[in-house]
């Protein structure tokens, strides 16, 4: 399976009292597809999966699959630092009809390279489906180096892609060197999407595409069409937005942006995430206006 282009790490709309707003989520997915997004990723970091129960995660994945109706692939966040929990979540993703499971490297535990191999082997044994390994050392405290990834891919054929969120282009290039040109290297860092494509990447799992799906998708398409000037122009357009999405911890700025745009009815978060600080709202609004989002 090939994952090509821009996939949105979907933000999850909550009602004012903190419940999942299913109707708003369905409308949001429909807007993403209308805007030309290439794929959807529910229940990742941006979707606040860490504050959801397993049943809520299963429901969100099911809604995304139902609403996508096969028009674009769905990569379902199903990872955990507990292998047992990751297996349970992956089974739910598979039953819901997701095209792949996004599996974060176990956080806090800091497993050895051998432990990583056994973690992914156990998941694939119990719930075999395409797996996108998510490497984000800034959140997990563990960096899955290219040699470690190669060992995982050799032992677990289900691992067909990586969401590489180190921002390290040298490491990203080495992924292709180790795993081959047919391995799906996806950016997990909106600041480095275009250069990552240039070293052999196939796309991005993006935060910014929550609010600029057409721009992110069109940038990837322009690169693949060898229209590099257009790709660079779109990259430059999104650069200030990429920075603004990290004015505070993700997903605070992106969900606030979606509320400013009128796409989300509320900008409700679950603790320990809190709303955007008042002094950052004018900064965020100014960037969105300059980018033509507002």
From TrEMBL:
Its main location: cytoplasm. It is found in: Cytoplasm. Gene3D superfamilies: Aldolase class I. Keywords: Amino-acid biosynthesis, Cytoplasm, Diaminopimelate biosynthesis, Lyase, Lysine biosynthesis, Schiff base. It comes from the Bacteria. Pyruvate binds at residues 46, 205. InterPro entries: Aldolase_TIM, DapA, DapA-like, Schiff_base-form_aldolases_CS. The active site is at residues 134, 163. The keyword Cytoplasm applies. Its EC number is 4.3.3.7. Homotetramer; dimer of dimers. HAMAP family: DapA. PANTHER family: 4-HYDROXY-2-OXOGLUTARATE ALDOLASE, MITOCHONDRIAL, DIHYDRODIPICOLINATE SYNTHASE. This is 4-hydroxy-tetrahydrodipicolinate synthase. It comes from Pseudodesulfovibrio sediminis. The gene is dapA.
